[in-house]
Amino acid sequence: MAMASIARRRTANLFSSSSKHLYNYSWILTRGFASGSDDNDVVVIGGGPGGYVAAIKAAQLGLKTTCIEKRGTLGGTCLNVGCIPSKALLHSSHMYHEAKHSFASHGVKLASVEVDLPAMMAQKDKAVGNLTKGIEGLFKKNKVSYVKGYGKFLSPSEVSVDTLEGGNTIVKGKHIIIATGSDVKSLPGITIDEERIVSSTGALALKEVPKKLVVIGAGYIGLEMGSVWGRLGSEVTVVEFAADIVPTMDGEVRKQFQRSLEKQKMKFMLKTKVVSVDTTGNGVKLTLAPAAGGDQTTLEADVVLVSAGRTPFTAGLELEKIGVETDKAGRILVNERFATNIPGVYAIGDVIPGPMLAHKAEEDGVACVEYIAGKEGHVDYDMVPGVVYTHPEVASVGKTEEQVKALGVDYRVGKFPFLANSRAKAIDDAEGLVKILAEKETDKILGVHIMAPNAGELIHEAVLALQYGASSEDIARTCHAHPTMSEALKEAAMATYDKPIHI
Ligand SMILES: Cc1cc2nc3c(=O)[nH]c(=O)nc-3n(C[C@H](O)[C@H](O)[C@H](O)COP(=O)(O)OP(=O)(O)OC[C@H]3O[C@@H](n4cnc5c(N)ncnc54)[C@H](O)[C@@H]3O)c2cc1C
Ligand SMILES: NC(=O)c1ccc[n+]([C@@H]2O[C@H](COP(=O)([O-])OP(=O)(O)OC[C@H]3O[C@@H](n4cnc5c(N)ncnc54)[C@H](O)[C@@H]3O)[C@@H](O)[C@H]2O)c1
To answer: Where is the FAD/NAD(P)-binding domain (predicted)?
Structure first.
């Protein structure tokens, strides 16, 4: 089936289960675009992955576009204090850990291995600086105007910007896209000072390796940043309110993942809540209690990372002035075309419902401006992959086994462990598995879950398979190069509808 028709079909289904959020958007296509005036066709508030991608795509579609960003650099949370710096530190700390613990078994002897934290941080900052400047270059190349400052609504077509230089300017646009992202969710009674009690931003810039790090929340940030500091020498304890780490993950994969992290000396206190935090002494003293209530215990830390989720960021935008609707969690409500209840005003990325991921924000941004330009957009949140960039990584797309069961669908499971994969054995990095869930009757793939050193790369074959409605047999009968980790996906696919060869 041609991609365009898939795009149309999926677009029609998007948000179909949440019709209360749908607004009439018939006016959108009837609004003309500015030509030759100072007004913009599109104004984007926020220069993160959602906003900057929307701005570039809008300009590429011939729309006069301005992007407003308050941070002073483009790239938003992701490039400045999120995806990129965390992956830089994950890579550097992994190299240190490998040098210290694995090189010798590969016949590489080092007299000594040390952490040079300032150099590690400088490498991270260099990567961030290059990438954020790169986006400014892309703006110039695509003729996107860039206003540095804090935007707030004056009307549905006017944004007042307090510029970083100190002045004020009014930016007008026929279509305004809110892409203001998210911020760390604070916990009652815990004040983040970014030194001893840090958010992910502080955890990306610690000046020394804490002896004891307590992480609140066993989600993406907690496990990634816990891994960074654990590899560099911290004793890491993760306190999680829920019964499981990464509660959204496939249960079977999660169990193996938790065991792997525990082997790396990460400690978990599940079903536990933080009652209070005392910073009056030298370190931090946490009082904990079972989530269901019961006897309190205490825990000492040098640094506490608060990573219990993120919350949509709309402070200072003055949404109420123009009447943009939000839900109880503060997320801006949009229809399948990313239009809010206010004509001409749209929202994308972390500030709307859906996974809080950079690639999802980018997809939102492209689809939103495609709709504005009168074209078909294409986003399917069921096809958004998720990756935890620990070692091994865990990546998934589609449904977990728990979700498939809850749907009442008859299904088959195919699994293949990396212990039986020749490439993984050759490089002595064979922890993990591929797990495929397929509908029993049709063999259509419903979900794929991979735990492997490079799961975040391997998953895209599965994303494509799901996107095109492939069966497990489709993957199994596709030739995969040898020796590669990808062969584990082929073998898991064989195990789903028939039998694998190598186990
Ligand atoms: C530590 C960490 C690691 C992460 N790692 C990953 C990862 O590996 N992969 C992944 O997919 N996602 C990751 N994420 C999530 C990812 O960063 C977000 O999903 C993504 O940045 C959302 O993009 P966005 O454009 O919606 O918002 P943001 O990136 O938050 O951008 C919004 C921008 O809007 C600006 N802004 C806000 N209000 C105004 C205003 N009124 N006027 C002007 N500008 C304004 C902000 O300054 C900000 O730059 C991570 C997040 C964190 C915190
Ligand atoms: N690799 C990636 O793609 C990546 C990396 C980092 C962040 N992110 C994004 O950033 C967002 C925020 O990350 P995050 O890790 O802060 O959130 P998260 O939603 O991934 O995890 C938060 C965890 O904290 C737990 N929690 C909530 N309240 C708690 C409390 N009071 N005490 C103890 N535990 C509590 C939750 O049960 C959950 O397990 C995520 O939604 C994710 O999409 C993605």
So the answer is: 41-365
Q: Is the CB of 239 under 6 A from ligand 2?
A: yes
Closest listed ligand to the CA of 317: 1
- pLDDT tens digit string along 466-499? 999 999 999 999 999 999 999 999 999 999 999 9
Instruction: Provide the pLDDT for residue 268.
Output: 98
- The rounded distance, in Å, linking the Cα atoms of 285 and 304 is 10
Residue minimizing CA distance to atom 17 of ligand 2:
309
Q: How many CA atoms lie within 13 A of 80 on its CB side?
A: 17
DSSP E strand boundaries for 15-124: 40-45, 65-69
Taking the alpha carbons at both ends of the chain, their separation in whole angstroms is 35
Nearest to 177 by CA among 36, 342, 321, 18: 342
Please work out whether the CB of residue 219 comes within 6 Å of at least one atom of ligand 1. no
Q: Is 350 in the pocket of ligand 2 (CB under 6 A)?
A: no
- Mapping DSSP to helix (H, G, I), strand (E, B) and coil, where does residue 428 land? coil
The residues annotated with a catalytic role in the active site are 482
Average pLDDT over residues 441-459: 98
**DSSP assignment letter at 349:** G
| CB hemisphere CA count around 260 (13 angstroms) | 22
- At 49 the three-state DSSP class reads helix
Q: Determine contact, residues 436/448, Cβ cutoff 8 Å.
A: yes
Walk me through the domains of the chain, giving residue ranges and CATH numbers: 40-183+311-373 (3.50.50.60), 197-308 (3.50.50.60), 392-497 (3.30.390.30)
232 is in an annotated binding site: no
How many CA atoms within 13 Å lie on the side-chain side of 228?
29
For the stretch 310-348, pLDDT in tens is 999 999 999 999 999 999 999 999 999 999 999 999 999
Structure tokens at 166: 């100190």
Going by CA atoms, what residue is nearest to atom 30 of ligand 2?
Answer: 241
Helices (H), 323-400: 358-372
Cis peptide bond prior to 49, omega within 30° of 0: no
